[in-house]
Amino acid sequence: MEITITEFTEKDTEDAIHIWNQVVEDGVAFPQKECLDKESGRAFFQEQSFTGIARDQETGEAVGLYILHPNNVGRCGHICNASYAVRKDRRGQNIGEALVRHCLKTAKELGFRILQFNAVVSSNTAALALYKKLGFIPLGTIPGGFLLKNGSYEDIIPHYHLL
Q1: What DSSP letter does each residue of the chain carry, written as one string?
Q2: Which residues partner with 7 through β-bridges?
Q3: So where are the chain's domains?
Q4: 66: CB partners within 8 A, 6+ apart
Q5: How far is 144 from 122, CA to CA, in rounded Å?
Q6: 123, 121, 107: which is closest to 159 by C-alpha?
Q7: Does domain 3-118 have CATH number 3.10.310.10?
Q8: Chain centroid to CA 162: how far?
Q9: What is the pLDDT at residue 25?
Q10: Closest among 126, 123, 155 to 141, alpha carbons compared
C-alpha cells in the first residue's frame, strides 16, 4: 500500500476527528481525555504548525495523521513536538513510519531544530521500536508519568531527534 501525506484542509475534518478520537478513546497514548467534535476538531487541526493527513493512494481513504507544533516558546521555540495517529484498522502497515518521516522533513522545513516527544508511554512498544529505528534518543524514564484510561499509571520515556 502506498500513502500520500498532504496538509490538512477543512474537508479533512471529519476523517481527522475520527482517527484522533480513536486514540483518545483507547486511553493508552494521548494525554487528552476529551474527544474532539466537529467545531473543536477543525480548530485544533487548523491551529497546528502543520497537520498532515495520510491517505491510501488506491482508495483515497484517510488512514492516519500527525500534528506538529512548537513544544515551547521564546528561547525554546526551535523545539517542536508531534503526535501521530493511525486508524485502528490500518495499524501495523508502516503508516506510522511514513507519518514520522514526513513530520521530520516538514519540521526541518518549518525551521525547527529539534523534534521532542514529551510522553512516549513505555507500553507503546511499536512506537518505541520505530523511534529507535529512526534515530530518536530516549531521555530517561519518568515513573508513572502517564495516567491510563483504566486508572493505573504507566512510565513515560521522553525522546528527541536533531533535525
Answers
A1: --EEEEE--GGGHHHHHHHHHHHHHHTSS-S--SPP-HHHHHHHHHTSSEEEEEEETTT--EEEEEEEEESS-GGGTTEEEEEEEE-GGGTTSSHHHHHHHHHHHHHHHTT--EEEES--BTT-HHHHHHHHHTT-EE---EEEEEE-TTS-EEEE--EEEE-
A2: 52
A3: 3-118
A4: 51, 52, 82, 83, 84, 85, 99, 100, 102, 103
A5: 10
A6: 121
A7: no
A8: 17
A9: 97
A10: 155
pLDDT in tens, 60-111: 999 999 999 999 999 999 999 999 999 999 999 999 999 999 999 999 999 9
The sheet carrying 114-117 orders its strands as 3-7, 50-56, 62-70, 79-86, 114-117, 159-162, 137-138
Distance of alpha carbon 161 from alpha carbon 113, whole angstroms: 9
Residue 50 has which C-alpha cell?
502543520
Closest CA to 128 of 109, 143, 147, 141: 141
Contact (Cβ atoms closer than 8 angstroms) between residue 82 and residue 107 = yes
Q: Is 113 within 8 Å of 162 (Cβ atoms)?
A: yes
